[in-house]
User: Which sequence fits this backbone?
């Protein structure tokens, strides 16, 4: 068995990789060391070591790679461009937040072979179907466990392998399975026999039971049996007949069964583990929402201090941080600009030790990566601390580098009564900043009331303002405090996103234009949401609001974005570089609608006369609470948390509901001792959901520890409205939000009206 097929191995580029090459690994201008790299026999693992290090070597899998960039396309390689020409350089980009690998080959031909070879392997890994993926996974384990590389595995090696795979099985049972698979009675398993062993090991009784319930002869599901399963259990209604035919065609491995128009247990399990058997509605993965409504009617995936890869005080500022955020579908990025010592504006977190990058380099990066993940508009939120001269230079860079991509004029020449739509703004970058006067051209050269957005944090974080909106005399105080000059050139580039100070909902209702928007710190926004939820929802139906983390979060931690979405805030800026619950929720909300970074708000939040308060969901028109019942059946091949030999996880599952305050809830199963391979819970968790349109459901798997905090194993978060009822698999993600196949949960979900 060769999971990669011989085809790819005969490829001349892949052959070069398998023969091995000496490539320089570059970490900085001064750290450039030769390492020997080669592709292992499995056609999937890249192995490398230094010439001098004795036994030490490192490996990574092609499945961890997202792309290969050619030439000087990273900050590190740009810094050594004079020393090494572009045709020797390339960058391996990993999924998630893992750092890139910058490499320099000895010849252009060698660089080309690695660039093309790795691209082919990435493509191959991405286009594998479920069966190939499983074969690959089995093959990987076989390679890992066959310590003496004789292509066979004796019982001792198998015992070791079971531990590596998170299986705790008594000796007797393991030996029984081993003997069943060892058909030649040689005391060892070759790869084919090992596949058989793996099959017996992963036989899933809980799937077999469901299969038995619908199969007349216990051997196969006939077309009408599969159809009734899809109708009764998977709630598919009318389309069941058509779908049953398609599934047999797509998922059934046995030709014989296919000819009979039937599905075997293997095919049934294949279907349940596929995308269609997943918890996420396939029709919501694609672009399914109306994109022609005003910008204020959408939640917009947004990043805070986008230039930081680490914390807010000493962190490294990096162009890579922009690339990562944009690749994740982020549609609002932030730039903090300051006067640079040599006349060029720089970006960093002012008054801290974070490193600096050139403003113009960020704009070039934006130009290149803005529309790779999504065609819909990107908002560039400018936190401007520059003097007039360097502001004019920023305006010049924006115009020259972005060209037509930068929106600099009204779409139809008319002063808008409402914001344009994502559809109309496709492929455009919008500048959000201060503006002299309005779109109606009232000219006032000096801007007053000019506290920079983030400087207002001092007030909010100290909660120095009493609750509610500040009285008028406070505002006049503010005016005296600061008068800053704004360059006409920069001001002219602001069209639909003019930053203004927030003077309360009443003031906004009577004075504000739809293109004016305010930034509020999390604490101020949270207070307004609690005290005046309905006003906030109505305000956000017409105008954009941007929320940013408190200045006290110097560790780049995040606040819970759900509280802000509950009142319709569109631009809820998070530290994308920080993994955890908050980014899981952000990834979860924006996983729908083709991950385009825009999600249409529920209809009761889009009407400026809307009477919705997240504190009192039952008062809105059309209130229909739902009951959500989740039977957590089993887990499959959960990753090991602790790499210590012999340690095996004790998993439990927690389901969390994030939504309006009344919907916030969590329930968990008990833990299963020593089984990360195929734990069985069979426990049901129940929830009542008052505002389903705003709820997110997060599944978390943890390793139970009675003495200390549980360790995180994996999670998956999705909008309640994207859940498919029935028997479903949940494909788990790592802390970083990247896939960890084949780890999954098997659940049965039912959603019903609360009567």
Assistant:
């Amino acid at each position: 068995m060769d999971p990669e097929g011989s085809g790819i191995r005969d490829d001349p580029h892949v052959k070069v990789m398998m023969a091995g090459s000496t490539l320089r690994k570059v970490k900085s201008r001064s750290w450039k060391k030769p390492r020997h790299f080669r592709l292992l026999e499995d056609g999937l693992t890249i192995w490398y070591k230094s010439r001098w290090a004795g036994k030490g070597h490192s490996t990574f899998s092609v499945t961890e790679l997202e792309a290969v960039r050619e030439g000087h396309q990273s900050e590190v390689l740009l810094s050594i461009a004079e020393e090494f020409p572009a045709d020797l350089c390339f960058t391996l980009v990993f999924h998630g937040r893992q750092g890139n690998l910058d490499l320099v080959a000895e010849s252009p031909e060698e660089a080309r072979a690695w660039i093309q070879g790795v691209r082919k392997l990435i493509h191959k890994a991405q286009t594998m179907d479920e069966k190939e993926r499983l074969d690959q996974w089995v093959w990987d384990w076989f390679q890992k466990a066959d310590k003496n590389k004789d292509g066979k595995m004796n019982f001792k090696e198998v015992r070791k392998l079971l531990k590596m795979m998170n299986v705790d099985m008594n000796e007797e049972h393991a030996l029984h399975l081993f003997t069943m698979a060892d058909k030649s009675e040689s005391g060892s398993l070759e790869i084919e026999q090992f596949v058989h062993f793996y099959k017996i090991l992963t036989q899933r009784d809980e799937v077999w039971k469901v299969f038995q319930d619908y199969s007349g002869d216990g051997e196969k599901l006939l077309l009408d049996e599969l159809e009734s399963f899809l109708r009764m259990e998977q709630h598919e209604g009318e389309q069941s007949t058509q779908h049953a035919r398609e599934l047999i065609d797509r998922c059934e491995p046995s030709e014989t069964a296919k000819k009979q128009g039937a599905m075997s247990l293997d095919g049934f399990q294949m279907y349940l583990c596929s995308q269609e058997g997943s918890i996420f509605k396939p029709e919501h993965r694609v672009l399914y929402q109306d994109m022609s409504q005003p910008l204020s009617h959408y939640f917009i995936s947004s990043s805070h201090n986008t230039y930081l890869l680490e914390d807010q005080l000493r962190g490294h500022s990096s162009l890579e941080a922009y690339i990562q955020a944009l690749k994740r579908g982020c549609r609002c990025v932030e730039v903090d600009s300051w006067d640079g010592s040599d006349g060029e504006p720089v970006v960093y977190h002012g008054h801290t030790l974070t490193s600096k990058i050139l403003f113009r380099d960020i704009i070039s990066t934006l130009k290149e990566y803005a529309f790779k993940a999504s065609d819909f508009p990107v908002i560039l939120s400018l936190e401007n601390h520059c003097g007039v001269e360097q502001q004019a230079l920023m305006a010049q860079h924006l115009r020259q580098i972005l060209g037509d991509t930068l929106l600099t004029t009204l779409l139809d020449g008319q002063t808008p009564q409402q914001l344009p739509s994502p559809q109309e703004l496709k492929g455009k970058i919008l500048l959000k900043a201060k503006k002299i006067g309005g779109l109606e051209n009232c000219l006032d050269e000096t801007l007053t009331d000019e506290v920079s957005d983030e400087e207002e944090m001092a007030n909010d974080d100290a909660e120095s303002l009493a609750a509610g909106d500040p009285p008028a005399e406070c505002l006049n105080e503010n005016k005296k405090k600061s008068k800053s000059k704004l360059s006409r050139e920069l001001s002219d580039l602001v069209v639909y996103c003019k930053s203004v100070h927030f003077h309360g909902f009443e003031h906004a209702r009577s004075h504000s234009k739809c293109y004016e928007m305010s930034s509020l710190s999390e604490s101020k926004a949270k207070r307004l949401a609690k005290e005046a939820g309905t006003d906030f929802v109505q305000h956000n139906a017409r105008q954009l609001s941007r929320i940013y983390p408190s200045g006290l979060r110097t560790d780049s931690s995040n606040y819970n974005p759900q509280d802000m979405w509950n009142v319709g805030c569109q631009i809820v800026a998070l530290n994308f570089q920080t993994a955890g619950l908050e980014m899981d929720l952000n990834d979860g909300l924006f996983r729908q609608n083709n991950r385009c970074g825009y999600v249409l708000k529920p209809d009761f939040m889009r009407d400026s006369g809307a009477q919705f308060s997240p504190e009192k969901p039952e008062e809105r028109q059309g209130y229909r609470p739902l009951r959500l019942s989740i039977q957590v059946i089993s887990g499959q091949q959960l990753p090991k948390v602790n790499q210590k030999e012999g340690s095996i996880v004790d998993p439990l599952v927690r389901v969390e509901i994030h939504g309006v305050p009344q919907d916030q809830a969590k329930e968990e199963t008990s833990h299963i001792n020593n089984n990360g391979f195929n734990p069985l819970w069979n426990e049901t968790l129940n929830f009542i959901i008052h505002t389903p349109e705003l709820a997110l459901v997060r599944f978390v798997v943890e390793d139970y520890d009675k003495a200390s905090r549980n360790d995180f194993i994996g999670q998956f978060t999705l909008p309640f409205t994207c859940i498919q009822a029935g028997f479903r698999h949940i494909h788990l993600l790592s802390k970083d939000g990247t896939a960890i196949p084949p780890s999954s949960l098997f659940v049965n979900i039912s959603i019903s009206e609360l009567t």
Summary: The two ends are 56 Å apart (CA to CA). Residues 108-126 form the longest helix (19 residues). The CA atoms of residues 415 and 439 lie 7 Å apart. The longest strand covers residues 739-753.
